[in-house]
Design goal:
mainly alpha; 18 helices; two-stranded antiparallel sheet; Growth Hormone, Chain: A; 3-stranded mixed sheet
């Protein structure tokens, strides 16, 4: 352990006030007493000893400011992670105009490869926080985003680049997908129990918005002032300064917590719970649909309505595809809020029913009907997926709590809080694979039938299966609906 520079408690330099309303009495419930933790100490490398958000005195004195400062820079880094994760979704539709001769199958692989890698990286990224420190890993993971951004800028200007090179560069965009897991794993340590939901929800929503911003900004950046040509390398270069700012901000403003430890035992216990896999299926249907459709939406518009692939805005071109992930991101918090009021399982069922109906409408609505109905149906699908995303995520700790109350053997010696926290990260990793499966299903449908209807038929079947599973496990008589799931 590094030698302690200052043995006396002192505030962390540069702490800002957290912009969240204080709620008197919220930190300690009636009948409980606030506990005092060890004095807060700062060691070299911005390691904090004795940080305890459940200590009311410390939280009000300096803990709130520490947590707020770390949350803001965590959101910044995670936001850029989602931006990078979605860069190829919008860049792919520009490649033919830039002189690349790629098949539809190859284009769909470039869209889906970042999701495959990002989902896979979410598990190891989670365990990097306790191993290296939250601040240290945020710096590293932010700097890793330079690899896909500079890589993209380097290859898209050379149409002779082999497909396998494009695929490798696209795979590195998965670094951005992994950022979500480590960011959530880090921020959860900074907030007291009654504020974790708000902090993690804000952290997640700030990240998800990166998908919409990428699809809004990239088409504008590569066409503005280009006089009818494409400056496609800017799709990567424009993010490099922001990534450097995020890494510098994390380096100078974030902290490592000495008590943040990995929970392999909790993860293994979470995996042994049968409901883990059911919840993972449901989350794949909600978040997987959000990230999967976010990735393919620009290409679907380009394929079905090429005249609306871009909309002229002065000398620049705007893609309306950004509206999909924007709606999905903004609706996620409302899914959690509705779940708090009516129960997560009920809202999740309603979301899947809506998603099945909307997917059915998209499957039977021919392009001849027009672009506006197509756009509105897809935005409604994003809305339903975002609401289901929030409600399903809210279900996870509730299910683990009920299982622990009903069958003590389900948890053994592992506290339910540890199991639920581990399950949140692992289920988020599994759900992200939807970003790979949806583009691949659409690609297979187009190869086999020349259109996308067959893929949407498959999505309808999956959503209806999710309705049945949710009802059978959580809503039918004798299930968990009366226990707040």
């Amino acid at each position: 352990m590094t030698n302690i520079v200052d043995e006396t408690p002192r505030p962390v330099p540069g702490a800002d006030a957290l912009a969240t309303p204080a709620s008197p009495g919220a930190l300690t419930s009636p009948g409980t007493t606030a506990h005092r933790s060890a004095p807060l100490r700062v060691r070299p490398g911005r390691w904090l000893d004795g940080y305890d958000p459940e200590d009311h005195v410390q939280w009000e004195g300096e803990g709130r400011a520490i947590a707020g400062r770390n949350l803001r820079w965590s959101i910044t880094a995670e936001f850029l992670g989602f931006v990078v994760w979605q860069l190829w979704s919008i860049t792919v539709v520009k490649l033919p105009a830039a002189g690349f001769h790629l098949t539809d199958t190859q284009l769909f692989w470039l869209i889906s490869m970042p999701a495959l890698v990002g989902a896979t990286l979410r598990v190891p990224y989670t365990f990097m926080v306790p191993r290296l420190g939250g601040r240290n890993w945020t710096v590293v993971s932010a700097l890793l985003l330079l690899v896909p951004t500079i890589g993209l800028a380097s290859v898209v200007s050379r149409p002779e680049t082999p497909f396998w090179v494009l695929l490798v560069v696209a795979a590195t965009a998965g670094f951005g997908g992994g950022n979500f897991a480590s960011s959530m794993a880090n921020i959860t340590w900074f907030f007291p129990a009654d504020r974790k939901g708000w902090a993690l929800g804000l952290n997640a929503a700030g990240g998800n918005l990166g998908a919409a911003v990428a699809q809004l900004v990239v088409p504008l950046a590569v066409t503005v002032g280009a006089a009818g040509t494409l400056r496609l390398p800017l799709a990567g270069w424009i993010w490099v300064p922001l990534i450097l700012v995020a890494a510098a901000g994390a380096l100078w403003r974030m902290d490592n917590l000495s008590h943040a430890r990995g929970d392999l035992t909790g993860s293994l216990a979470a995996l042994r719970e049968p409901h883990f896999w059911l919840l993972a299926v449901l989350y794949t249907g909600t978040f997987g649909s959000f990230i999967g459709f976010s990735g393919v939406f620009p290409k679907l518009i380009a394929d079905l309505f090429p005249a609306y692939s871009t909309v002229a805005v002065g000398t620049a071109a705007l893609s309306l595809a950004f509206l999909g992930p924007l709606v999905g991101s903004l609706s996620r918090p409302y899914g959690g809020r509705l779940a708090d009021r009516f129960g997560g399982a009920r809202i999740t069922v309603v979301s899947f029913v809506a998603m099945a109906a909307l997917a059915g409408a998209l499957a039977v609505t021919p392009p001849s009907v027009g672009f506006v109905p197509f756009l509105l149906l897809f935005l409604a699908l994003f809305l339903a997926a975002g609401i289901g995303n929030g409600s399903t995520y809210r279900m996870i700790p509730a299910v683990y709590r009920v299982r622990a109350d009903r069958r003590a053997t389900a948890t053994g010696t592992v506290p339910v809080e540890r199991m639920a926290a581990a399950a949140l990260g692992l289920i988020a990793a599994v759900g992200a694979y939807g970003g790979f499966f949806i583009p691949q299903a659409l690609a297979a449908s187009r190869r086999a039938t020349g259109g996308y209807t067959a893929a949407f038929d498959g999505f309808i079947a999956f959503y209806l299966l999710a309705v049945v599973l949710t009802w059978a496990a959580y809503l039918r008589r004798g299930a968990m609906s009366r226990a707040g799931v």
